[in-house]
Amino acid sequence: MKKLFILTLLSISIFSCKKEIIEDNETYQLLNPIRSDANAGTWRPVLLTTANEFACATPIATTSPDYILQLSEIKSFQNDITSEKRKLVNYWGAGAVLRWNEIMRELVAKHNIPPYQNADGTYPIPQAGNPLAFPTFPFSNPPYAARAYAYLSAAQYDACIAAYFYKNQYNRTAPFNIDGNIQTLLPKSTLPSYPSEDAVVMGVSVELLKLLFPGDQDYINQKAEEHKRARLIAGANVRSDLDAGEALGKLVATKFVIRARGDRAGAAVGTPAIWAALETNTAATGQIPWISLESPKRNPMLPLFGKVKTFLFDSLTMVTNIRPSAPPSTSSPQFATELAEILNFSKNITREQLRIAHFWSDGVNTYTPPGHWNYIAAKDFVQQNFSEARWARNMALLNMSLMDAGVACWDTKYFYFNPRPSQMNDEIKSVTGVPNFPAYTSGHSTFSAAAATVLGYIIPANAASYNAMAKQASESRLHAAIHYRSDCEKGFETGIKVGAFAVTRGQTDGAE
C-alpha cells in the first residue's frame, strides 16, 4: 500500500514551515466506460434545484470559421506528439474525477500536520483568512478532510449532471468526428463533446480546492491548465467545449461554496471557555473526563464539529436515531474489563497486530482515514469502467457518508467526553500515538463502516471484502491501544447507520 498510509514520524518533521505536495501519479488504464450514462442529466443532484439551474450558452456551429480555427488549434498541438505530451494525455485520460480526487488526497496529506506549540505553551490555530501565515491553513485532520472530500465529490457530481443535461440539449459531436485529420489519443466517446465533462469537473474542482486549500492556488491552477491542455492534445475537445464546461463548473461551485461558508465548520474549533466546560460538565456527572495527553496539553480537536451541517440527514435524526447510548461508566466493572483488555494488547501485541495497527493508522502527513477509503474506492472503481458521471455520483455517495460519519462521531465524542485508555492506566502504551480527542466512539470504526456499507452497495461483489477491511480497520485501534472495545463496536454500528442513508439516496437518485 502507499507510503502515505504508513506513519513514519522519524522521517517527518512536523514542525517544518515548508511542506511539499507528494505526488503519486499512479498509472491507470484510460477511461473507457462500459456504458456512457448519457441520461445522467436526469439524475437527482445534491444542491442544484434542476440540472439547468445555471445556463450554458448555445455552442457555435461546427461549420463556423471560429470552430474551424479551434480544430486547427488541436492539429497544431498534434503536429509533434512527444512522449511528454502522451504522458500528459494518459495521466488525465484515466479520468477527471479520479485525478482531481487524487489531487485532493495529496493536498490533505500535505496539510495533515498538527501545529507546534507557542513559546508560552499554547497552540496557534490556522486561519483561513491568512492561510500562508504560521501555522498554515488548513490543518487537514480527519474531520476537516472528510468534509473536504465530501464537498469536492458532491460538487463534481452536480456539475456532471448539469454538463450531461446540456450535452443532450446541444448534441455537438466530438472534433474527431468533424475532421478526419484529428488523431484520437483516447478511447472514442459516444457522448456529445459540448460542454466537456472533463472541463466541468475541472472547473468545479478548482473552485472548491481554492476554498479548502487557499494557500495552494498556484498548484491548483497549474493542474487545471495541464488538464485542459491534455484534452486538446488528445483531440477529445475543442477550446469552446472546454471553456463552456469550465464556466458551468464554476457556476455550480458557487452553490457549494455558499453552503460550506455557512455549515458551521468555521466555528468547530470552539473556545477556551467551551473546552473548559466540557471537562467540568463531564466531571459533574461523576465520570472521569478526557484530558489531552500531549505536553503541553493541546486544546481538543474540533469539539464543535458535531454541529456541522450534514448532507444525508438532519441534526434531529443524528441525536435521536444515530448517536449511540452512553459508554460504560468509568467506574463500572465493564469499563475495568475493557481497560484490562487494552493493557493486554499494549503489553502483548503480535507482529501481525502491529502491522495492522500501522497499516490503518493514517496519521500525520497521510490522506487520513477518509482518504484511505477514497484510495481503496478509486483503485476498485477503475476496474469497473464507470463513466465520468457515475464516477462522480459514486464518489459523492461515499464521501457524503464519510463526512456525515465524521460529524456523527464527533457529536458522540464531545457529548460523552470519554477518556483514552492510556489516560486511565499509564502502563498502556500506544504504538501509533494517541489522538487528541475523546475515545468514545472510534473515528476509524465509524468512517470504515460507513465506507464499507456504501462501497458494498456500489460494487456488491466486493461487499464481503469491504466489510472485512472495515472490521480490520476498527480492530486496529484495539491493537494500537487507542480505543476500548465499546468505542469500536458502537462506532461501527453508527457507521453502518450513516452509510445506509447514502445507500437509500443512491437507490432513489435515478442512476440505477
Characterization of the model:
With 512 residues, this protein is mainly α. The chain has 2 domains: 27-261, Vanadium-containing Chloroperoxidase, domain 2 (Orthogonal Bundle), CATH 1.10.606.20; 280-507, Orthogonal Bundle (Vanadium-containing Chloroperoxidase, domain 2). 55% of the residues lie in helices and 0% in strands. It is built from 18 helices and no strands. It has helices spanning 65-77, 83-93, 96-111, 142-170, 175-178, 197-212, 217-233, 239-261, 272-284, 315-322, 333-348, 351-359, 368-384, 388-416, 421-424, 443-458, 463-479, 485-507. The longest helix is centred in the N-terminal third of the chain and has 29 residues, at 142-170. The protein is elongated, with a radius of gyration of 24 Å. Residues 1-18 have low confidence and may be disordered.
Taken together, the total number of domains comes to 2
Distance between the termini: 32 Å
Determine and state the CATH class of the largest domain.
Mainly Alpha
Secondary-structure element string? HHHHHHHHHHHHHHHHHH
Our count of helices gives 18
Strand content: under 5%
Any idea what the radius of gyration is? 24 Å
Low-confidence stretches: 1-18
Tell me the helix content. 40-55%
CATH architecture descriptor of the largest domain: Orthogonal Bundle
Shape: elongated
Mean pLDDT: 95
What secondary-structure arrangement, pairings included, does this model have?
Elements lengths: L64 H13 L5 H11 L2 H16 L30 H29 L4 H4 L18 H16 L4 H17 L5 H23 L10 H13 L30 H8 L10 H16 L2 H9 L8 H17 L3 H29 L4 H4 L18 H16 L4 H17 L5 H23 L5
Helix pairs in contact: 2-7, 3-4, 3-6, 3-13, 4-6, 4-8, 4-13, 4-14, 6-7, 6-8, 12-17, 13-14, 13-16, 14-16, 14-18, 16-17, 16-18, 17-18
